[in-house]
Amino acid sequence: xxxxxxxxxxxxxxxxxGMNPCIRAVVRTALYNGLQxxxxxxGYQGLIDNNMYEMNNRSVSNILNLGGTILKTARCLxxxxxxxxxxxxxxxxxxxxDGLVVIGxxxxxxxxxxxxxxxxxxxxxxxxxxxxxxxxGSTYTLGFDTATNTVIEAIDKIRxxxxxxxxxFFIEVMGRDSGAIALRAGISCGxxxxxxxxxxxxxxxxxxxxxxxxYNKKSSSIVIVAEGDKHGGVYDIAKAVEKEVKNxxxxxxxxxxxxxxxxxxxxxxxxxxxxxxxxxxALLAGKNQQMVGLQANHIVLTxxxxxxxxxxxxxxxxxxxxxxxxxx
Length: 328
Ligand code: F6P
Hints:
Elements: E1 6-11, H1 19-32, E2 36-40, H2 43-49, E3 52-55, H3 82-94, E4 99-104, H4 106-118, E5 123-128, H5 144-165, E6 167-173, H6 180-189, E7 193-195, H7 203-215, E8 221-226, H8 234-244, E9 249-254, H9 266-284, E10 290-295, E11 298-303, H10 304-309, H11 317-326
Bound molecules: 6-O-phosphono-beta-D-fructofuranose.
């Protein structure tokens, strides 16, 4: 097996709290094992622009508590082309880099896998970093716990004012293809209903349950809508309900990008540290085209190909059913 000497680390796609603890772990594990480490700025764009710098132990001091990513991130269209990939490859080779850790979501892994198939002499390991918690091979992705806690804090505040005014709130949370945040926040905040991309929204059923809530003397109601819900935007849903549910003052709140920021939770700091440490150890063990993940509190490796093919988030029906019963 060819010995690894120099690796690069990048963050790509939507940022997620926990990326910084992960970068710190990658850098320090690599240095501990005698490897050199380059930090790539702005994801794949930095590979194309040759925007990299050598990192040392002090480059990652005091970043465990920081949201965002010190390496910056981007969604890079040129990296999807053969030309862009070739430039990136040449830049990496010119620097003597033979291993790459990519931290991001499914878009990031799609790019990593294509690149690695084209240029197999650079070994690639993926770390699941997205607030959406929608990657096969890891029960949790970096940032999901922090984002969910951020959502819970916001919804608790909305509940105070909703209750004071006897109002019905529709609250949109992130999750383009994933209802993971919506479901966890729904259970944690006692939402009256949640609408998810994984489940066809039955507006009629929603109307019936909201009317039942009024009949049962609920003073306020919260409906959480994941942004990817197939029925359309949160405003359309609120309008459809407004026509049928009378005597309820209806308001809409979109939580938006605030869900992506903030200091990572204890869970995400530890997860980021474990995954970053595991990613470098995987490279040292000669692994390639794999993702490090957490399953039953153990670090496991999954082929990037499999992680992407099985990408579809599976709705946890049992949790959904429990939420519905507990919110009566
Ligand atoms: O992938 C994470 C995510 O937060 C999605 O839930 C959301 O749709 C998307 O990023 C929005 O990201 P941006 O506005 O940065 O493109």
